[in-house]
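step=encode ok
step=design start
structure_in=
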């Protein structure tokens, strides 16, 4: 047992290392992309030049400073006033700026690319090189009143390693990670759940329908307070998910049918019910307070989905490692017959685990409808593969008896980095499923090697 725990810890640290290497590789190989940065000004906002840039006094009394060293400048066109930030390069006097029809530029890491046009700078020391006008680079050249040649464009950020994209990865991983923790517990039992995506869809459309009715169909909430909206949204989604999980567990135990068959049928049933509830339409217009809470902005990011995933991962780890119920789950998955002889209520343990997994799918659905403001019967399509992949990559053994909640969270991050990496590198999405499938196979091979190592150590 101690060796097994050490192997799990080693695997978790290995996953952290894999995540770090993947992020470093994506940063190195993905190109920079433009990001327009603008701040609109109201007519009553006061603008004043300072020694360091521009000071703005808002009509409501707030004050903001924008540094000219970072490229901020005031733009006035008719009645429109705004601040814009540009990457700005002043070409030293004596240097040559030549417009060329074709040039080779670096687009990411070691890769170069031929572009159609741009400016070639020479005699300017470290500024020597090509500055394309097209292909997403958009350098512009102009002369200031004193004759200084200036090149400028919208600020560019790495297509992968920027705050906006990393929050997309974290948010997407959150939904998978929350569900993967529940699925990991099922896999530890020696079972499987193919209906997790359908449960997610049913919980989202039922929760969205109840929220919409509670708000009277209007976005203003029709008097529904934030606390009430949160209670309805999370309560209904969680209840629906838990009920579906309870049905899966009770049917598998009561009918003595493998969870693969029960959840395969459940996948079709729950998805069909979701379609009937939504009538195939997208459901929106929730109470404003519900979405505002889920999309709460802290320091420029919306961290609630990520916080929820980390909380679920931590809670799952504590249950697995520190509770009698957690030990019962591992004992049942390790040897069900021995667990029965040891006095463990195996059937009840299975039903509880499936119910908790359904509850977590409902929780993920509630966060998703708050984040995106809509739900449909197609939500969660294809999630089954990616949630299973997250659990297996995270160290859950498909033969039962081994798994880690923290590993499930890390596995979800790995899967989302794969998804996001294909987009960042502009690789055909058809290859994505191939890579994810290979990741599952590799994780199973690693698991088998751990099993042999553990058994060999036990014999000695």
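sequence_out=
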């Amino acid at each position: 047992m101690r060796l097994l725990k050490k192997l799990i810890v080693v695997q978790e640290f290995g996953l952290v290392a894999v995540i770090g290497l993947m992020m470093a590789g994506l940063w190195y190989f993905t190109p920079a992309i433009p990001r327009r940065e603008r701040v609109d000004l109201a007519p009553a906002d006061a603008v004043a030049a300072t020694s360091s840039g521009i000071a703005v006094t808002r009509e409501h009394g707030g004050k903001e400073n924008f540094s000219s060293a970072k490229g901020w400048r005031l733009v006035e066109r008719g009645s429109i006033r705004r601040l814009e930030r540009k990457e700005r390069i002043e070409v030293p006097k004596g240097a040559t700026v030549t417009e060329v029809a074709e040039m080779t530029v670096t687009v990411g890491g070691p890769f170069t690319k031929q572009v159609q046009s741009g400016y070639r700078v020479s005699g300017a020391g470290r500024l020597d090189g090509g500055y394309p006008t097209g292909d997403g680079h958009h350098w512009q050249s102009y002369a200031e009143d004193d004759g200084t040649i200036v090149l400028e464009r919208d600020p560019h950020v790495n297509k992968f390693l920027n705050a906006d994209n990393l929050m997309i990865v974290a948010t997407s991983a959150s939904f998978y990670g929350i569900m993967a923790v529940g699925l990991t517990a099922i896999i530890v039992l020696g079972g499987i759940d193919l209906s997790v995506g359908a449960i997610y869809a049913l919980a989202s459309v039922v929760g969205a329908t109840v929220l919409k009715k509670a708000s009277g169909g209007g976005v203003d909430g029709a008097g529904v307070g934030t606390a009430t909206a949160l209670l309805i949204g999370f309560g209904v989604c969680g209840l629906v998910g838990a009920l579906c999980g309870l049905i899966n567990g009770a049917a598998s135990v009561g009918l003595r049918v493998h969870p693969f068959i029960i959840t395969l049928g459940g996948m079709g049933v729950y998805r069909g019910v979701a379609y009937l509830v939504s009538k195939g339409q997208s459901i929106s217009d929730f109470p404003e307070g519900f979405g505002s809470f889920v999309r709460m902005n802290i320091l420029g990011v919306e961290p609630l989905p990520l916080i929820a995933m980390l909380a679920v991962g931590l809670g799952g780890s504590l249950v697995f490692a520190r509770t009698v119920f957690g030990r019962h789950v591992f004992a049942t998955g390790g040897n069900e017959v021995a667990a029965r002889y040891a006095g463990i209520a195996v059937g009840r343990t299975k039903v509880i685990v499936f119910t908790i997994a359904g509850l977590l799918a409902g929780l993920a659905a509630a966060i998703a409808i708050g984040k995106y403001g809509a739900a449909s019967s197609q939500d969660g399509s294809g999630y089954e593969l990616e949630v299973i992949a997250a659990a297996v990559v995270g160290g859950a053994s498909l033969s039962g008896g081994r798994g880690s909640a923290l590993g499930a969270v890390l596995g979800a991050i790995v899967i989302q980095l794969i998804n996001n990496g294909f987009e960042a590198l502009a690789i055909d999405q058809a290859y994505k499923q191939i890579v994810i499938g290979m990741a599952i196979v590799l994780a199973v091979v690693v698991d088998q090697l751990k099993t042999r190592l553990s058994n060999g150590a036990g014999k000695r």
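step=design ok
step=annotate ok -> The two ends are 14 Å apart (CA to CA).
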